[in-house]
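Sequence only, no structure available. Ideas?
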Amino acid sequence: MKNLVHLRKKKMRLVTFEEPHYNRERLGLWIGADDLVDLNFAYARMLLENEDFDYPQPIADAFTPPNLVRLLEGGKKSMNAARAALKYVEDLGVSKISGPKGEEATFQFSKVRVLAPIPHPGKIIHTAGNFREHAKEGSESGWEFPMPHWISFLKSPSSVIGHEGKVIHPRYTKMLDHEIELAIVIGKKSKHLTRDSAWDAIAGFTVFNDITARDIQREEMKSSLLNFGKNMDTFGLFGPCFVPKEDIGDVHKLKIECRVNGDPRQVSNTDHLSVTVPEIVEHYSWVTLYPGDIITTGTVSGVAAFRKEAEKFFLKPGDVLESEIENIGVLRNYIVAEEGSF
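Reply:
I predicted one. Tokens follow.
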């Protein structure tokens, strides 16, 4: 096999999607606005045509499995293989790509079901207080609980939904709020990291929106808890894609915007962080981190709860929520009423 390390690098976006014929979870290369190419099949076809492998599929399954966590577990060899497949696709042209046995390998991003990049993460560590603008707006709004650095809580993996997914508005909350965040995806098993070694543990990034029932949160925080108000079904929005750290640009200079029905509600930039991304990962590495684990940065200013006349800004059934971070993309979700409510 040819050396893949020195390939001309192209920007990579990886999408977990549901293959429409057999509803299988697959991993795709998102190219342009609407082209999605099955990574595993594209790599197998490349091995067949360019590397003269008679049986390329087992090698493709080993190097480019159709699952992002397994790809991350493959380390640099798997990421180099994915980049080789990306170059092959872009050089040949998306329309000419198929699997080694003629399998359908090209799809439209807008026509398939896009899942969260990691539909079932091992753990999701959420942080708060890292954007001081958010803490400041909370204090100025009269929010009764302080927001120092390094607030943390766990988000339930069962709350996760992906791009175009529906957010269920629980019948028992009148204060459903949005919190856009940059999500850090861990790439290798790590513990007790230093600030210098933390970057090496990071695989890449995606968009997260930490949906919160503020009225439930308020009651829980009286006992110093952050639990059900953050963890109801469909409260963990994340996607639309995974971007490797090599392709994100300057992670501390990314534009952030959360929109409701097209109206910008949270507008900021990662240069407003009061700590760095490696410092965040270092801080939470007292627990063993595994490939596919998620750590978020915390949210920026503009949440509904801290606005004047906040009741006008809480999420309601029928709202369209768009969460966008520069160099990643737009995560779009829809607020729907819980069955039997409203």
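The two ends are 60 Å apart (CA to CA).
Hope that gets you unstuck.
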